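By convention, the token line describes the chain's fold. To illustrate:
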Amino acid sequence: MTMSREEKRSDPATRLQEDLADRIVALARADGVTPGQRLYEQPLAQRLGVSRSPVRAALDALAARGIVIRRPQRGVELVALPEAAATNGADAAAGEDLLVLIARDRDRSLLEDTVSETELMQRYGVARPVVRATLDRLADLDMVQRKPGYGWRFLTSWSAEIRRDSYRYRMIVEPAAILEPEFRLAPEWAAEMRRQHQRILAAPWEETSSLAFFEINAAFHEGIAEASGNRFLLEAIRRQNRMRRFSVYNWKHGIERVHDNHVEHMGILDSLEDGDVQLAALLMRRHLERASRLKPSFAHD
């Protein structure tokens, strides 16, 4: 017998759904979302580096907890934000730091392709729950995979040659996505992108800010690809972002690139909202060309 959507919601949330639900709450808190405001599945999926399906399930889990509500014809609205626990905040900060440290050490070839949780605990001086949560997060991004029985294996690698080929590939694919005949830019997505970019621009820069900076950049490029209406172009850009994550998580210099990136992205959005897809495609190619010429530690788009 086929279950209804309502019946499926009553099932216990999985560990992944609960983790995504907690991360959605953290994003809402960081973004200053207030009760009554809407939460959009696609921007959340892009920022969290997952597809819409697990985000939808996580929102259902939040609805069951009374944190959000699904309203007919209006989508998901925030009802109330739970109080942030100090210990959870400390663990979250430690997890962000650990992501940067792992990215740095992988970039320097200081971590083998296979690691254990105990090895990471000892190397970085963090508790097992932080290590496990970080590895689970990397697994969600298809960057690591749990080995049968014991240990974890890294799935991504990056080099000067791969980086060069990646940019050349993206210079072909991303402008083409804008020129697709079914290209449609969602106004609410464009408005959300402007808000997120402005928030990054206004925030003090810290070592772990590169994580948020990359995720917003990834969301921007994936959103443009999704607007093409071509699922294969979208998957191509998502794959590129998965490959690039480790390299850019270790990016920590060049605040001027944050400003340049903002100007270039806003120029592309301006052209798209004006309906000038030819100019937007040209600006996208120039944007990627500029990023490709930067030193690897500075390139972040």
Notes: Confidence is low (pLDDT under 50) at residues 1-10.
